[in-house]
Structure formats: C-alpha cells, structure tokens
Amino acid sequence: MIPTIALVGRPNVGKSTLFNRLTKSRDALVADFPGLTRDRHYGRGRLGDRAFIVVDTGGFEPVAKSGILKEMARQAREAIAEADVVVFIVDARGGLTEHDREIGELLRRSGRSIVLVANKAEGIPVERAVAEFHELALGEPLAISAAHGEGVRGMLEIALATVAPGTASGETAPGEPAADDDAMAPQPHPGERPGPGARVKVAIIGRPNVGKSTLMNTLLGAERMIAFAEPGTTRDAIHVDFDRGPRRYTLIDTAGVRRRGKVFEAVEKFSVIKTLQAIEEAHVVVLLLDAQDSIGEQDAHIAAYALEAGRAMVVGINKWDDLDADARQRAKSDYERKLAFLAFADAHYISARDARGIGALMASVDQAYAAAMIKLSTPKLTRALQDAVARQQPPRAGYSRPKLRYAHQGGVNPPVIVIHGTALAHVPDAYRRYLERFLAEAFKIRGTPLRIQFKTGVNPYAR
C-alpha cells in the first residue's frame, strides 16, 4: 500500500512550500502570509521506485475553541489520524515556541511515527539550527530548507523508512487519492477523449459564500472541506476523488470569485487564478448561485468565462429551501432573464445543506459529460448540415451565396464541428448560431456548448 505523510506545524513554517517540493508541483498556494492553507490538500510524490501520498495542512492551533482556527485544527487532526508518518515542521529561524510544545505533546499522544524537521535552516550551522528543538523529545531534529531543497531527500528517506513497504494503513479517507494502479497514470487533457475508467473532473464555481464547500461535503458524506459562514473561507482549489456508484469523479472545490474592483489582497488574486485554472482543467463545471441573493453581474462574468473555455456546465441554484413561493418565482424569473445565454445548461434548484436535489444535479453532470465527449460520424453530420441548409440558407455575400458542402468532428469538450465549403468567410455570426442550435437539437446535445469552425477550400483559379 502507498504510505501517507502528513505535514503538520504552526502557521507560516513552510508546510506548503515543502508540499510543493515533495509533489514536484505548484498545487499549494505559497505566500509570506500566515493561515493561507486551510483545508487538507493531497498530492502524490515518488522517491525512486517508491510512491507516497503527502497531505498539506493549515496552521495547527491545538487550543483553538471556535471560529476558522478551530476548523483548521480539526482538519489537521484528521490528517494526523490518516497518516502513517507525521512530519512535524518547526521554524529554525523563529526558534522553539510554546505553540510548538503544544503540537509536540499532541503528536506524542497520537501514536504516529514522528519526523521532526527544522525548516528555513539555509545558511545556519546545523547544530545551532536544531539545538533547542531537542527539548521536544521527538527524536533527532533534521535541518532542512524546503525553499532550496537542502536536506529534503534525506528527510524523506527517513520518513519512508519508518513505514516498511506493504505495511501502510491503506485506508482511503474522504478526499484522499485512491491507492489504485491508475491513480499515478497521467490524466487526459479536458480536450481529449479519456480512456475507460478515467475520472470525470467536476469544478464547483461561483461567488463567495454560495455554498460550494457545503455541496462538496454533502456529496462526500463527510466534513472534508471547511464550510464556514464567513465569505472567502476556501482559498485554494482542492481536488477530491469521489465515487458515486459506478461513476468516478474528481471534485474541485474553488475559491469564490468577487468583482475585480473588490480584489485587493495578493492572496485573493492567486485564489482567483487557481479558480480560473480549475475551470480550464475541468470536464464539467457546476455553477452555483445563491437563490436568496439576486443574480449579479459577477455571476454572469463567471459563467461567461466557463462558456468561453468551452466547458460543459450544470447550474445549481442553492439555498432553495429557505424561500417562499413568491421568492422562488422571482428567483426563477431572475435566472431566466439574466443568464439566458446558459440555455444549453440544465438548472437545478437545490439545498446543499439538506442534500435536496443533489441526485438530479449529478445526473445532469453525467449527461453534460457524455454530451461534451460525444463522437459524431461524418455522414450523419453532413446529412444534418444539409437539412439545416435546406431549412434556411446562409445569406448572400455580394453576388454569391456561401456553400456549405460537408462537415466532420474536429474535437471534444466542447464538441467542435468543422464545416467545409466555399466563401465561408462571409457567413455571419447569426447563421453560425443558427447552425449551432440546429446541430445541438439534431444530435440531442445538452449541457455543453457546441463550436463550429468554417474551413474554405483553396480556389485553384485564384492565380
């Protein structure tokens, strides 16, 4: 089984930097800002021929009794319970603190294998960097620099040596990457047709405080994400593997996106970038709206970005259970009027907190994914194109009329239809939209946008 390594320590000691070093990625947000990481973040690494799972955690406040710090401490405790070995990170430059002593005492009672590392030790003699941390009585402290990679390989070798091959717990917690053979295989790009058994990537997007993390927890059946009444609780894009019956998904919880004029902090700007990257990475996007709040321009901007990316989409209008009949009717009218350009997407009125409407929402996710990955034969596409032209011909361009001869499929997610003919550069956008609607109806494509590309043949008499 694949061993699990949890990174634990007080805020701003370099846990996320070490996570990125071990996973050889930039998945975790890193900034000189305490409390940036909040939810557990899983990644995969490899040392030689041995794979492992590494868990990044938020700054650990063992004595926190309320608020977001209490939720972050709960996440850290769950990571410790799941781990085969815990890497306890302290700050070699900041020295030993009372906070470190409290975490050390908790780890000592956990019964887990502990590797104590003093980070940020670059340029400091090893003996001086680790001297005062012997007081924790957690074994020989190791001096490392996560930012520069100094001592990281030796630390990892010691951590893995505490877990003999084949003796890892092998228990998969909610959100932990499954320890199967294909988990380490490279995942297909959203624009490629995935192989059998591949996971469907579903990104949940929306404004702050619309219930994205609550929806994630409801789907997983566990308090995997920190769901808090405070807007902006989620700051990173968290990937969570999730199985629902025979279907296999990777859910992506994203940070809420506010209007550009309200985004001032650098941390929030990085969070927005992570959200936009998650949209590009996903196969299907679930746009979550707040039924208790009117649909604003920001909702339309977020939806428009996902549409421009060509992603299949499902709309969830959340917090529906708290509205009376009149408010529900106003919310429906508001959605149909302001987001009319999402007519291709199914809309569901749900309650993420009470798990109402979730089954229908996931059924639409499956339908949208199937539509995004549909495979259309050239003869059928050409016949449908001829039917569309017979019903309504393209308008004339000067003395001639564009001729649409045949069509074939040029890609998936979104489905791309390439139409060949002559004088197609003069086809207006209105006729392009007519063809998109006609072909979507002809092939019952629901839940994904359809793209049409025109390709004009070369005139052999041009010279």
Topology of this structure?
Blueprint: E1 4-8, H1 15-23, E2 41-47, E3 50-56, H2 67-82, E4 85-91, H3 98-110, E5 113-119, H4 126-130, E6 142-143, H5 152-161, E7 200-205, H6 212-220, E8 238-244, E9 247-253, H7 266-281, E10 284-290, H8 297-308, E11 312-318, H9 325-338, E12 346-349, H10 358-372, H11 378-391, E13 403-411, E14 416-422, H12 429-442, E15 451-456
Parallel strand pairs: 1-3, 1-4, 4-5, 5-6, 7-9, 7-10, 10-11, 11-12, 14-15
Antiparallel strand pairs: 2-3, 8-9, 13-14
Helix pairs in contact: 11-12
What features would you describe in this structure?
With 463 residues, this protein is of the alpha/beta class. It has 3 domains: 158 residues, Rossmann fold; 187 residues, Rossmann fold (3-Layer(aba) Sandwich), CATH 3.40.50; 79 residues, GMP Synthetase, Chain A, domain 3. It has 12 helices and 15 strands. The strands form 3 sheets. Strands 2-3-1-4-5-6 form a 6-stranded mixed sheet, with helices on both faces. Strands 8-9-7-10-11-12 form a 6-stranded mixed sheet, sandwiched between helices. The chain has a 3-stranded mixed sheet with strand order 13-14-15. The longest helix is centred in the first third of the chain and has 16 residues.
